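Deliverable D5.2: sample structural annotation.
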Amino acid sequence: MNAIARQEPFDLNDPALRARAVAAARGDAPFDMLITGGRLLDTVTGLIREADIGLVGALIASVHARASRMDAVEIIDATGGMLTPGLIDTHMHVESSMVTPAEYASAVLPRGVTTVVWDPHEFGNVHGLDGVRWAIEAARALPLRMILLAPSCVPSAPGLELAGADFDAAVVAEMLRSPAVSGVAEVMNMRGVIDGDPRMSAIVNSGLASGKLVCGHARGLTGADLNAFMAAGVTSDHELTSGADLSAKLSAGLTIELRGSHDHLLQEFVEVLNGLGHLPPTITLCTDDVFPDELYQSGGLDDVARRLVRYGMKPEWALRAATFNAAERLKRSDLGLVASGRRADLVLFEDLTEFRARLVISDGRVVARNGSMEATVQPLDTAPLIKSVKLPLLTDDDFRIPAKGERVRVATIDRPRFTQWGEAETYIRDGFVVPPVGSAMIAVAHRHGKAGGTPRNGFLSGWGEWRGAFCTTVSHDSHNLTVFGGNAADMALAANAVITAGGGMAVAKDGQIEAILPLPLSGLVTDASLKDTASAFADIRKAMGKIVDWKPPYRVFKACFGATLACNAGPHQTDRGIADVVTGKVLEDPVLEII
């Protein structure tokens, strides 16, 4: 029982702590900390009022009239600032920022983010249960509250790809038995759930049996498919594609994790919500994926709130979504509201436009001040994450498709993001298929040591003309080595640079490496500082601009990292071939017919 009592949120129910808070609230004892002179945003009513706040340990003991109390061990002057609850990011992946959890915490806490809901499925896909255990331990000692979920889809599309691990229902149930795991992370194998696949049904049912959250990934689902997905027990979605999609999923009853990683959709979402005239209680905010340069320059969930306000959302709505609504979703009645009896997670913002945090308090302790960390951030040993790229060096011919004859008909993967099947005719030269006119090449090599590492090759249509190559081991969600390019020589050069680095990204052009970002931890993360990682990633972005012409919103750099996400509808290149989750078909190579 004692171990349970110490686990959040039950830690606040310590009788001695409550007794001290009650005495302080009555005025019979001083507060540990008193915040005076600020204005308070009430995230329930949306009203702003003058108030002082008294804290006892990790507990808010009193919210009372300004200057009515001055008895406290420590007094903080909040004059001119706006007090709100700490921000809550309802869905994110630390790994996408390519830095360690400790470095991530140091980046977002000074900006007012005190809680994140972390799906560590990237580490899970690479290292299996050991990766999830490492994530739990890494989060345990940090001043940033990290609520971890059990990765539900490792791999995201079984049979169509091979990851570094395979989480069936028994593994998911084992994770859910841990008090450090608060639910089932985004269920991405939508087709498996909808079709009643025994594996996915058992995984979802494990979550339901645990009484914990079952989170979703409902990209493109409508009508009967959406109903079936929800009827299985999935209750949230962040994969919105349009304002109409947002409206439909709100009406369906899903909790919405409105994500900042698709900025081109945010203004449309704001227009839909403003048209309702109120903020639904099921709207929360999340970052999902934040690249290191974006995190360093703009922040995390604070940046999502800032952009929503810029696009016309009321600041009170953005903050309610990021605090009270999020806490309700997480069943965390201790969070999301500045009120007596709640947890002392507070942010003092300079204003409600730019959301610059002057002071951040977590569990009643000042953790950051004026944009700088004050709390100690303890990193975890990263040795268990190294040597995850188990591949020999590759040759030019590994990125060519052998064939006999003179002409050939091949399958193509058409369009970034929302892919579809296509076909093209081309010719054969020196025993290899010549890429069809206007196409780019994609290759995926299994890199986890569970199978052979010979790349599977395909052709992309609608990706523009590539004047070089890009290789990455950050490739959702199995994170196999993935290479894009316009010629085999540059593809092999980029691939070997990444293999030699132990994972990461490299851009090659005309036989030279233009930029490289080593990510030797899991092939996803580095021990380097966020500042240095952001700079190296920015160099990758710049180099990519030299080898391909982007065409937003879909043909963008970010699309490279999701081009292998086989759980999404349409064909996707994987380490098994060209896979289609709708049909269950896998083409080992794209050759359809020798003409």
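Annotation notes: Confidence is low (pLDDT under 50) at residues 1-5. Residues 530-547 form the longest helix (18 residues).
The annotation will be released with the project's public dataset once the embargo ends.
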